[in-house]
Specification:
Shape: globular
Helix content: 40-55%
CATH superfamily of the largest domain: Thiamin diphosphate (ThDP)-binding fold, Pyr/PP domains
Number of strands: 18
Largest sheet: 7 strands, mixed
CATH architecture of the largest domain: 3-Layer(aba) Sandwich
Number of helices: 21
Distance between the termini: 38 Å
Structural class: alpha/beta
Radius of gyration: 25 Å
Length: 547
């Protein structure tokens, strides 16, 4: 347990740590999720504080587990980065219909500016599309308090709630004070309610009506919730804002009258109309898509928004000043940073050296190995989303001329394979291209890109205790792949080249598992394995006769 759990007064914490503290203080029974920057530290911190937290194979499974806990009346949180909500969307949309008994909070950690993501989608759209409330903190204090409020709101209206964080809020440290948070009103207990929980059409139709009624009631509650603070100032300029943009607005326009929306769906339109009527000039300053701007205009409220060029990337104080003054001058170019690269000693280097040498068309995936697109390798040709390497590679194989098709390989990491590679492998067996296909699983024994988290293929859980393990080569054979090879990509690079070349020329389906521990995590992995062995030995001591 960390010092955060016992320190009662002022704390300097990140937004992620604040959410974890709120989960502890609000009586959360279960935290689930999939690691992804910038959300990863929430569950890691919650576990360090003594909470029950676990990594799921992917975000969809994580949300299903959390939903099950909430059906039982427990408070549960599920965490993911913004693109993870795409994976979990199927659950989210129907969970809005079913409702919950216990509080269910979904953390969507958006990444404006794409610090470590393949897109910068604005997940405020999900709240509107699915019909669930959304709360948005601007700093660690609000992250803590709004997490507690999100659970209370979820239980009050029997509905999942999205807590939208952004990279800047997740990782920035600000002063936070712990305050009393409402606890769960009852212990977990499952009460049968088939019309509410079984979404066949006959029950789903009235559930949709109930959902829209809930949203009307939540909107009415939001008008008087007190969660959308108004900062008084010069009424010649009024600004509606939300999230971290609030911080930038306060610095860029300290004289302005500001309405910060922390509950950004459903909106308090009465409050917004009153605010608009009280100022001479009304602007919306929001990071990302012009969602609030469009909502206000759709309601007939005259409002100014930001120029289209500020839709991209993070907002800053300078950018806000430019919006307020109408400055059209080009922004100074960003400071050029050092490009990322695969670590020295990383086994992925050997793999991509061989793939480039062989002239392969490489359908890539999400992970450290994506860096192979950069010099000196330049050996990755596609990268779309988690698990897409297999399907994209198969699509290329199906349509390219045979000699070109034979050069296509799919490359996926171990954690990504667990996340969403199994269905791609099933497709590979079910609809094999005429030229066969080659899948390389780069197994470095961890979720390396997000800081060495466990997954279902490591045999260790979130806190590194031993648990069940999915063995990739056994899975591949069980799913119908006859040609399965396991090798160390650094022990014998020439042998690996021969294996890949032979697989490409065979015209068969092949899975090659390149297994070597991540060089940065190898020491930790050895420690965790040693600790696991000691725990097993303590739990099952050898009998005296055996000695």
């Amino acid at each position: 347990m960390t010092a955060l759990a016992t320190t009662p007064d002022r704390l300097l914490v990140s937004g992620d740590e604040a959410v974890a503290l709120a989960c502890l203080d609000a009586g959360v029974r279960l935290g689930t999720g999939y690691p992804g920057t910038p959300s990863t530290e929430i569950l890691e911190t919650f576990a360090q504080l003594g909470g029950k937290a676990q990594w799921a194979p992917n975000e969809k499974v994580a949300m299903e587990v959390a939903l099950g806990a909430a059906f039982a009346g427990a408070r549960a949180i599920v965490t993911m980065k913004h693109v993870g909500l795409n994976v979990a969307a199927d659950v989210l949309f129907t969970a809005a219909y079913t409702g919950v008994t216990g509080g269910l909070v979904i953390v969507s950690a958006d990444d404006p500016g794409m610090a470590s993501s393949q897109n910068e989608q604005d997940n405020r759209h999900f709240a509107r599309a699915a019909g669930v409330p959304m709360l948005e903190p601007a700093d660690s204090q609000q992250a803590y308090e709004l997490t507690g409020m999100a659970f209370a709101l979820s239980e009050r209206f029997s509905i999942p709630v999205i807590l939208r964080m952004t990279t800047r809020v997740c990782h920035s440290k600000t002063i936070m004070r712990r305050v009393p948070l409402d606890k769960p009103p009852h212990d977990p207990h499952f009460e049968r309610d088939i019309p509410a929980r079984v979404m066949v059409p006959a029950y789903a139709r009235p559930a949709h009506v109930r959902l829209r009624d809930k949203l009307e009631r939540i909107a009415a509650w939001n008008e008087i919730s007190g969660l959308n603070p108004r900062i008084e100032g010069d009424r010649s300029l009024g600004i509606v804002t939300s999230g971290v943009a609030t911080v930038h607005v306060r610095e860029a326009a300290p004289q302005a009258t500001v309405l910060q929306l922390t509950v950004t769906y459903p909106l308090p339109m009465g409050l917004l109309r009153d605010f608009a009527a009280s100022v001479d000039r009304l602007l919306v300053i929001e990071e990302g898509d012009p969602i609030l701007e469009h909502d206000l205009r759709a309601a007939g409220i005259p409002v100014e928004g930001k120029p289209e060029r500020f839709r991209f990337g993070e907002l800053t104080v300078d950018r806000v000043r430019r919006i307020l003054t109408g400055n059209q001058e080009p922004e100074p170019p960003p400071v050029r940073g050092k490009p990322p690269m695969l670590c020295e000693g990383c086994s992925h280097r050997s793999v991509f050296t061989v793939l480039r040498k062989l002239g392969c068309i490489v359908a890539g995936d999400i992970g450290c190995y994506t860096l192979a697109v950069l010099p000196p390798f330049e050996a990755m040709d596609t990268c779309v989303c988690m698990g897409a390497s297999i399907g994209v590679g198969l699509g290329l194989r199906h349509v390219l001329p045979p000699e070109e098709a034979k050069q296509v390989v799919s490359v996926i990491g171990d954690s990504t394979f667990m996340h969403s590679g199994l269905t791609g492998l099933a497709e590979m067996v079910y609809n094999p291209p005429p030229t066969g296909h080659v899948l390389l699983i780069l197994d470095n024994g961890t979720t390396a890109m997000t800081g060495a988290q466990e997954h279902a293929g490591t045999g260790r859980n979130l806190i590194h205790d031993p648990t069940g393990k999915v063995v990739f080569e056994e899975v591949a054979r069980a799913m119908g792949i006859r040609h399965v090879v396991v090798l160390d990509p650094m022990a014998d690079e020439e042998g690996m080249e021969a294996e890949i070349r032979a697989a490409l020329e065979s015209g068969e389906l092949a899975v090659i598992i390149a297994r070597r521990a991540c060089i940065l995590a190898a020491g930790k992995i050895r420690q965790w394995e040693k600790a696991a062995a000691e725990k097993r030995a303590a739990a099952h001591p050898a009998s005296p006769e055996a000695n």
